[in-house]
Automatic annotation (TrEMBL):
Organism field: Marinobacter santoriniensis NKSG1
Highest taxon listed in the record's lineage: Bacteria
GO molecular function terms noted in the UniProt entry: hydro-lyase activity; isomerase activity
Entry-linked InterPro entries: ClpP/crotonase-like_dom_sf, Enoyl-CoA_hydra/iso, Enoyl-CoA_hydra_C, Mitochondrial_ECH-domain
NCBIfam families linked to this entry: PRK08139.1
Function per UniProt: May play a role in fatty acid biosynthesis and insulin sensitivity.
The protein's name: Enoyl-CoA hydratase domain-containing protein 3, mitochondrial
Amino acid sequence: MTDAAEPLIHTYTENGVTTLMLDKPERRNSLSMAMLEALGEVLDEVARDDETRVVVIAARGNVFCAGHDLREIRERFDSHEFQQALFDRCSEVMQKIVNLPKPVIARVAGVATAAGCQLVASCDLAVAADTARFATPGVNIGLFCSTPMVALSRNVHRKQAMEMLLTGELISASRAEEIGLVNRVVDEQILDETVYRMARTIADKSGHTLRIGKEAFYRQLEMPLAEAYAYTAVVMAENMKAEDAQEGICAFLEKRKPEWKDR
């Protein structure tokens, strides 16, 4: 649990969009055990929050997230149990993002390295400032970015992922966009405008439909082609039973704005 007087993550919701602001800039918003626990708890809360339709993960300061807290790791060199628990917890949190029944957008300003790059890759969408940079530099310190590799290799081509993992070099925001790590790169002055315009556009959809679509997207990715089509055909047929699907079709045909019930 985190100290209630000094929360590691600040949250606020407006127009169905909940922002999770990592707020430990003096430690480069690193994913310490405490930060991971706080992030996991907040994700559980927004998963249950009916007001939240879209989540934005952002960070205060000039570093989005520098990965794990190496000072914390050094202090616990003698505890394999802690090291295992740390990486297990990080893996759990990344899966919470993927499994969250609401779209998650990373708002990236500054540097995102190692598990911080993993955090970006784990989000459904990512928008970066043109000054942002990304890396999986574990190889430079003798600790290969094996868990970040899971998210990275599922978002970019394998050769591009291997180049990042083997060289440990920083890449620019524009390069991150080229290889599919982020969706858009914009001037830092309009980063918030771009992120929240995207978030509001998504939040305007049926929450029930978004939940169905996000779950189906990730499930079908791991299936052979024929199995994926069979699965998604069932999903669509079930989706058609929803009030929102029927309302949306009627609204389209009647040329009016749909009134979502989220069911």
